[in-house]
Design a protein that fits this description.
heterotetramer; A alpha/beta; B alpha/beta; C mainly alpha; D mainly alpha; B: alpha/beta; Rossmann fold; 2 domains; 5-stranded antiparallel beta sheet; about 40% helix; D: mainly alpha; 12 helices; globular
Chain lengths: ~240, ~400, ~350, ~300
């Protein structure tokens, strides 16, 4: 039986009187792919931020590979070997593609090894043509790919992705799916996502959030077939 | 120029050469005697410095109109130090290294004097500090003609106490002048059987005295003595009057009026304050009247004249007399001539150099502010600088270079 | 890459030596020494602001601290080698504590500015009220408003009688600035420097890569303070007096203006800005026609409006244009002042 | 017996005096910070020339009084008008080109502040000027208080009430509240943000001018006097946090109390340092200002 890499216990986050995340308990095994879905304001992004240390939960605990990380700083969590990509494209705009990826690799390698690692990742993601280009000048899709490269460069065993496919063209989404599936050969992956088509193509287990709580957790096909989920999800979407 | 062996001797021997080197292209008027001044003509101390600068220019033009010094014209090189102590050393260095002056007059606040005194001493450039101060500086390279505590506070304190009472509250500016003067005041209060019931120091930029005025009232002294300095501290006298305190507790000061504060304040605000200085515009002597006439001819009216403008004027004439007697502007020759007990008579009466301390023996007048004027109540003639005499003897110890402070 | 680095260093040394020898032909060395102290001070802020994204409104505090440390330690030890070292270490140590307080508190940009400003104001107020005889450190009176005159100036290490002043001081200061410049260049090429630039570009991203930005910013802040402290020591030995105005808001303001005018995100820009503006101020101080504050303010407003990237990038572009050697497109410098923080 | 009660009465008087001084210190901070708070609250822009705007108000008053205008008219009408107009011009010339560039705006305002100091020096001379307070001293038992303190307290109080009334009760206030919460909201409501910013800046400037004017009789006015105001105003506004009136009142309250307490107990310098230390401590504990923790959602 595979080891549990991510676990939350009664995770709760309140903002003033609003309960954004309400008693959520998740469990993720090594190399598992998991999507968190739910309508806007369902608490999935807040939950995500609690996982990567950007927010400290009001109550409950987070464990990564059995170690409690509740209240840790983001950099401490990342240092464990967790790759994180935020919802809003977040890169170092003034630096080149290579510098961005090198920096991610540098955390776990010395300068030269980091350079080799960056070259390797750039090759793997087919970014070779723009390796010296400044991030601020790239198109959205390219930036997303670079972000993925930043995540890959650290050789993570757990990857947290917040809406990786947002704003991408169909072809790009497809390629993104390939990269993510490839990731699961070495790492567990958590994805917060809106795009149902994309989620379906990943064919993973899905956790549905509604009003801060976990509504349901099952394979994507069964979840999509569930009338309650359809009601919640589509009702809000429309 | 590589690392020099001994900086002082080096500076002494090459000061002239360096000055010439730094401005190679400029021809100098070899025959002019060069006088440097550093005064705050702008900033929060400009009320002191601007009239001093005017007095300096008047004195120079008087000498030049009379054919100059030793048949050479006097050239004035003056820098505005903008009430910034850091600028004093900068400009003093420029005066000695670049402008190569024969003497430096200037410095207003004691802080500015201490900032440049060592620079000028190292450069062997004669220095005149012509402002009333806390006393005690012992330096053969420098001369002082302002009133010191023994000349001023020693008579002001008993006079003011006799007109009020024995419990005294002291408010002083927070720098060397205020600190040392406050201790002298404390001493004279005790000597006259009084008691210092409170003492506060204020940085020179403090302008809100509300809490202090309330504090003074909780102690309820008979007399407040306020050696406060500069434009910001002027608001104390305003706020004191605005609270109606001027009708309740008499006030004396060792500085009020030095910058013509009594003319800036309204009569209601200023009336009754007690001061003691070497000079008052109201002195009715032929020399003072003649001086005021010359001032009017130069500047239109006598509004600007104040105590330290006159002492600056007197200081310049003391030096000029020293040069005449020495027959040269050479530093050592002038010092020797000055130490010969040289004296000058001017608008503030007779001033005589005390060879032992390089300070001066002079007249002091006890005065009360009345309708924006300083009315002389009592005149004390020819008071020697006994405070400095007690600690400083340059005749026996010419290498002394310290400011002695009162132990209390 | 290594080869390029060597070439860069060699180029800096050659240019530096040419400037050090050439400038005295145009400007009096007495003035130049001051410009060098200011240039070093500007470089210190240029490093932490231009490359680390930390806008410090109180850089003058470290400058003043360095100058005062130099003066106070000099009076106590009667020589200046140890005081010079202390003038670097004391501000750096102070910055470590202050930086840790700020960065570990996750304060935003504006709050950082307020805290640094307030701290330098506190220092100013405190130093300004130490005129009393009780305020001494060892043999040195702090002197309040008077400042501290008459401390030992710079001397040859181990030989307190061999003093360094005048033209010699100029060369010592200039070579020191060159060394500091090379160290900064090396630092920026190192992983630490490159990650610092990453932090400037996107703090959150870098922390999500697993780097402790709080510690890194604190260290960078302390390095900047150390350089400012050294500049303060050179200022002190040049001016022969230290006064509380070294800590003033006005002084902090000028450093920021130097960086803006010279060019943020460059190493040479701040030094250039300090040199040009301090000389301008000096030259304007000689006349009474127009107030130099007015000119300084006007320059700042015009630069922010029309030339927000500063002089250095424009000069570099002009240079490339003249030599025709446009090896790489001029980089758009993402100075951290262009963003709107919505935190 | 009689003696004890006299002492008692004297202590009561002292308490009143201290209370007035504390209220005065708070009022002082409210006045000094109000203009800056309006501009910061609405535009998230720190106007570092705020201190010089105040000094301009002071000079406007002194000049007007010199021309024979009644001092109250000069302080309460002439100075705000002059400075408000000046703010309007500056906003059109400089700041409107810089919106969205927060640090650049700050730097430009700093440049403006230096220019204004320089201009003051050239126009009014680098010297101390002032007017005498128009209100006589005031007796509380055995104590005398500067009567002008009451005037400052009343003006500050009226200012707070007026700000509250405008924000609560008028349409402009509604728009302003919207703009404070979400900058894009106002434009969504059909108001040009350009105009809102322009008016905000002019009103903020007018408030600065008013503050400088009413404080002028208390201080000796020098061209560089602004530096003493901006630092404290800056600290008060940032420590107050996002709520305009509540933030202004609470931060001024805390700092005024601390300042006056230590001024009275030790000395004005210690009072000022205590204020600054309090500011650092406060920002460390409440890094987003007082009103993010307390008074949330108020104005």
């Amino acid at each position: 039986m595979a080891e549990t890499v991510l676990e939350t216990e009664g995770l709760t986050m309140r903002f003033g009187g609003v309960v954004a995340v309400d008693n959520v308990s998740l469990k993720l095994k090594a190399r598992e792919l998991r999507c968190l879905i739910g309508p806007n304001g369902a608490g999935k992004s807040t939950c995500f931020k609690c996982l990567c240390g950007l927010l400290t939960p009001t109550e409950g605990r987070v464990f990564l590979r059995g170690e409690e990380t509740t209240g840790w700083e983001p950099h401490q969590i990342a240092s464990l070997g967790v790759g994180i990509k935020m919802q809003v494209s977040s890169v170092m705009d003034g630096l080149s593609v290579h510098e961005n990826i090198w920096m991610a690799a540098r955390r776990f390698n010395d300068t030269d090894a980091a350079r080799r690692k960056a070259d390797e990742v750039i090759e793997r993601l087919a970014l070779g043509a723009i390796t010296r280009a400044e991030l601020g000048r790239l198109a959205h899709g390219e930036r997303q790919r670079v972000e993925l490269g930043i995540v890959l460069a650290a050789d993570p065993w757990l990857v947290l992705l917040d809406e990786p496919a947002a704003g991408m063209t169909g072809e790009e989404v497809e390629r993104m799916g390939d990269v993510i599936r490839e990731m699961t050969s070495t790492a567990a992956v958590v994805i917060v996502e809106h795009d149902m088509q994309f989620i379906r193509s990943l064919a993973s287990t899905v956790t549905v959030f509604h009003r801060g709580r976990v509504l349901m957790e099952d394979h994507v096909d069964r979840v999509m077939a569930d009338p309650v989920v359809r009601d919640v999800y589509l009702g809000k979407q429309a | 120029m590589i690392v020099t062996l001994n900086r002082r001797s080096f500076l002494a021997s090459t000061a002239a050469a360096t000055g010439a080197l730094m401005m190679p292209g400029i021809a100098r008027a070899q025959d002019a005697i060069r006088v440097g001044t550093v005064l705050d003509v702008s900033g929060i101390f400009d009320a002191y410095g601007t009239p001093m600068d005017m007095a300096q220019r008047l004195a120079v033009s008087e000498i030049n109109d009379a054919g100059g010094l030793l048949d050479r014209p006097v050239e004035l090189i003056s820098y505005d130090t903008q009430s910034d102590i850091a600028l004093y050393t900068q400009y003093a260095q420029r005066l000695v290294r670049q402008d190569n002056v024969d003497v430096v007059h200037g410095g207003i606040l004691s802080a500015s004097r201490e900032a440049i005194r060592q620079t000028l001493r190292r450069a062997n450039t004669l220095y005149f500090y012509n402002v009333q101060y806390e006393g005690g500086v012992c330096d053969r390279n420098a001369f002082f003609n302002g009133v010191t505590p023994a000349q001023q506070a020693e008579v002001l304190v008993p006079w003011a106490m006799s007109r009020s009472g024995p419990r005294v509250y002291i408010l002083a500016a927070d720098y060397n002048y205020g600190q040392i003067t406050a201790r002298w005041l404390q001493k004279y209060v005790a000597d006259n059987g009084g008691e210092t019931v409170g003492m506060d120091f204020f940085p020179l930029d403090v302008s809100d005295f509300g809490s202090t005025i309330a504090r003074i009232q909780t102690v309820a002294p008979d007399l407040v003595i306020a050696p406060l300095v500069g434009g910001a501290h002027l608001s104390f006298f305003r706020q004191w009057a605005a609270a109606g305190m001027n009708a309740r507790i008499p006030l004396a000061s060792t500085t009020m009026g030095v910058g013509n504060e009594h003319k800036v304040l309204t009569p209601d605000e200023g009336n009754g304050m007690m001061v003691a200085y070497n000079y008052s515009q109201e002195l009715d002597t032929p020399l003072n009247n003649a001086f005021k006439e010359r001032w009017i001819a130069a500047y239109g009216n006598t509004d600007a004249i104040h105590e330290i403008a006159v002492s600056h004027y007197m200081g310049f004439h003391l030096w000029a007399e020293g040069v005449r007697r020495a027959g040269s502007v050479d530093r050592d020759a002038v010092i020797e001539a000055m130490e010969d007990g040289l004296s000058v008579e001017g608008p503030s009466g007779m001033m005589t150099i005390d060879p032992q301390t390089h300070h001066t023996t002079l007249d002091v007048h006890l005065m009360e502010v009345r309708d924006q004027k300083m009315e002389v109540a009592e005149s004390l003639s020819q008071r020697p600088p006994v405070d400095t005499q007690a600690v400083c003897n340059l005749t026996e110890n010419p290498d002394d270079n310290t400011q002695y402070e009162i132990e209390f | 890459m290594v080869g390029a680095a060597h070439k860069d260093f060699a180029l800096i040394v050659i240019l530096g030596v040419v400037l050090i020898l050439g400038l005295p032909l145009m400007v009096d060395t007495h003035v130049l020494t001051l410009l060098i102290a200011y240039g070093m001070l500007a470089l210190s802020l240029g490093l932490i602001w231009g490359f680390g994204g930390v806008l410090c409104f109180g850089q003058a505090a470290f400058f003043g601290l360095g100058a005062y440390t130099f003066a106070v330690a000099g009076i106590n030890f009667n020589e200046s080698t140890l005081p010079l070292i202390l003038a670097v270490l004391v501000p750096a140590g102070f910055a470590l504590v202050l930086g840790a307080l700020m960065f570990y508190g996750r304060l935003g940009d504006v709050y950082l500015a307020v805290i640094t400003l307030v701290v330098s104001l506190i220092l100013f107020r405190w130093i300004n009220s130490t005129a009393g005889p009780d305020y001494t450190i060892g043999a040195a009176r702090l002197g309040g408003f008077n400042g501290i005159p008459g401390f030992p100036i710079l001397n040859v290490p181990g030989r307190p009688d061999l003093m360094i002043w005048g033209e010699t001081l100029y060369f010592v200061a200039a070579v020191s600035l060159l060394i500091v410049f090379l160290l900064v260049t090396w630092l920026l090429r190192s992983s630490f420097g490159r990650i610092a630039v990453g932090i400037r570009e996107n703090e959150e991203r870098v922390s999500l890569l697993g780097f402790d930005i709080r510690a890194r910013k604190t260290v960078l802040f302390a390095i900047g303070a150390a350089i400012a402290g050294l500049a303060g020591a050179f200022y002190a030995t040049w001016a022969e007096v230290v006064t509380p105005t070294l800590f003033s808001l006005q002084q902090s303001a000028e450093i920021i203006i130097w960086c803006i005018v010279g060019g943020l995100g460059t190493r040479f820009g701040p030094i250039l800005g300090a040199g040009v503006l301090a000389y301008l101020k000096f030259a304007l101080g000689q006349q009474n026609m127009i107030d130099n504050m007015f000119v300084l303010g006007l320059v700042l407003v015009l630069f922010v409006l029309f030339l927000p990237r500063g002089l250095a990038p424009e000069l570099a572009r002009g240079w490339h244009w003249i030599t025709g050697a446009r090896r790489k497109p001029t980089r758009r410098n993402h100075a951290p002042r262009a963003e709107v923080s919505n935190g | 017996m009689v003696r004890c009660c006299l002492k008692e009465a004297k202590r009561m008087d002292l308490a009143v005096v201290i209370l007035v001084e504390v209220l005065y210190a708070i009022a002082w901070l409210v006045l000094v910070s109000a203009g800056l708070a309006v501009v910061f609250g609405m535009m998230k822009v720190i106007n570092l020339a705020h201190g010089e705007f105040m000094v301009l108000g002071g000079y406007a008053t002194i000049t007007a009084v010199g021309l024979g205008v009644n001092i109250f008219v000069a302080m309460l009408i002439v100075a705000p008008l002059v400075v408000g107009l000046f703010g309007l011009i500056v906003e059109r010339l400089v700041f409107r080109h810089l919106y969205g560039r927060m640090i650049d705006t700050m730097l430009a305002s700093w440049g403006l502040s230096l220019m204004m100091i320089g201009a003051f020096k050239m126009i009014f001379g680098n010297t101390t000027t002032g007017v005498s307070g128009p209100i006589p001293g005031f007796t509380v038992g055995n104590y005398q208080i500067n009567g002008y303190n009451f005037f400052i307290i009343v003006v500050a109080l009226l200012l707070l009430v007026a700000m509250l009334a405008v924000l609560r009760g008028t349409r402009a206030g509604l728009v302003a509240r919207g703009a404070m919460q979400r900058p894009d909201m106002a434009s969504a409501m059909g108001h040009s943000p350009d105009r809102i910013y322009m008016l905000t800046f002019a009103i903020g400037s007018a408030l600065s001018g008013l503050a400088g004017a009413v404080l002028a009789p208390l201080i000796g006015l020098v061209p560089t006097a602004g530096a003493g105001f901006i630092a404290k105003a800056f600290i008060t506004v940032i420590a107050g946090g996002p709520s305009l009136v509540a933030g202004l009142a609470s931060a001024s309250g805390v700092f005024g109390l601390v300042n006056q307490f230590f001024s009275f107990l030790v000395s004005p310098v210690v009072g000022e340092v205590a204020l600054l230390v309090a500011a650092v401590a406060l920002l460390r504990l409440l890094p987003r200002g007082i009103t993010t923790r307390f008074f949330r959602g108020r104005l």
